[in-house]
């Protein structure tokens, strides 16, 4: 039995290593191109140059401002989407029974409808309301696709949530905030982290809404990346792609570490010491 367990462990580690390799494999050509001056057939190794990275970190490029704009929009979008999604998901999962499926279908409509149709409609609406070409307007437009994802992720948690834990805690004299902090939040933490991650990545990679609503006044990293694609500068394209992917990779890695830590803590908490 122990030998079989060791073999299963080795097989799992091998498959895990293959999956990690396949995940990072597409980034190898991008990294190589970012340091390439030229890369022509039949050369196996490109001519090395730091031109693209020097331009990315130079003071006269728009990359620095685009990174700050993208990070700011993504951070605020991920937080605000949770503020809106939390009460909606809790109500749908625990209290709303009538027309539940219809309401959830309406909430997911912004994901099902083509993005360019929504972007054009929102652009016309924001032109009349004075939110077009404004940072606030771009932020509100990013919330349109982010909130439905957050609601559905949190709804999956509350659909199987036992509210009896809260009732027992309230009977002991705890208030609503104390019940949320000590009972609900520890159980919700993993799903909430995933919801924040999804919302951040949706805003971070948003292009259509930023172009239509921002009107070119607010430059983000996806806008620079799309404009570089038509220039034919593969070195700069590779460098911008690496800058664009790096925050997402960091968030995914830290989130996976947090999820594994939570699972380990749950396993340790559920383990019962044998009676001697």
From TrEMBL:
It comes from the Bacteria. Coiled coil: none annotated. The keyword Cell division does not apply. Pfam families: BPD_transp_1 (PF00528). GO terms for cellular component: plasma membrane. Residues 67-255 form the ABC transmembrane type-1 domain. The chain crosses the membrane at residues 12-36, 66-85, 105-127, 139-161, 182-202, 208-229, 236-257. It is a multi-pass membrane protein. CDD domains: TM_PBP2. It is found in: Cell inner membrane; Cell membrane. One of its GO terms (biological process) is transmembrane transport. The keyword Kinase does not apply. Gene3D superfamilies: MetI-like. InterPro entries: MetI-like, MetI-like_sf. Keywords: Cell inner membrane, Cell membrane, Membrane, Transmembrane, Transmembrane helix, Transport. Its main location: membrane. PANTHER family: INNER MEMBRANE ABC TRANSPORTER PERMEASE PROTEIN YDCV (PTHR43357). Belongs to the binding-protein-dependent transport system permease family. This is ABC transporter permease subunit. It comes from Cohnella luojiensis.
């Amino acid at each position: 039995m122990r030998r079989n367990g060791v073999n299963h462990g080795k097989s799992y580690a091998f498959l895990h290593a293959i999956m990690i390799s396949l995940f990072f494999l597409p980034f190898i050509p991008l990294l190589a191109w970012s340091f390439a001056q030229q890369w022509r057939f039949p050369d196996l190794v490109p001519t090395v140059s730091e031109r693209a990275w020097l331009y990315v970190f130079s003071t006269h490029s728009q990359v620095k401002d685009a990174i700050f704009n993208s990070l700011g929009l993504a951070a605020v979008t991920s937080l605000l989407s949770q503020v809106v999604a939390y009460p909606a998901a809790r109500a749908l999962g625990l209290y709303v029974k009538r027309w539940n499926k219809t309401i959830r279908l309406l909430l997911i409509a912004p994901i099902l409808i083509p993005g360019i149709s929504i972007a054009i409609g929102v652009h016309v609406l924001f032109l009349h309301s004075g939110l077009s070409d404004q940072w606030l307007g771009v932020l509100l437009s990013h919330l349109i696709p982010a909130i439905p994802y957050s609601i559905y992720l949190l709804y999956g948690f509350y659909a199987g949530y036992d509210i009896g834990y809260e009732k027992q805690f309230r009977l002991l004299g705890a208030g609503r905030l104390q019940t949320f902090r000590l009972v609900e939040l520890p159980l919700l933490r993993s799903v909430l982290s995933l919801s924040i991650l999804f919302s951040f990545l949706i805003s971070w990679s948003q292009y259509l809404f930023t172009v239509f609503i921002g009107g070119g006044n607010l430059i983000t990293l996806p806008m620079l990346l799309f404009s570089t694609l038509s220039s034919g500068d593969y070195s700069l394209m590779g460098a911008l792609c690496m800058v664009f992917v790096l925050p997402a990779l960091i968030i995914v890695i830290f989130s996976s570490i947090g999820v594994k830590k939570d699972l380990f803590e749950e396993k340790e908490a559920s383990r019962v010491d044998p009676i001697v």
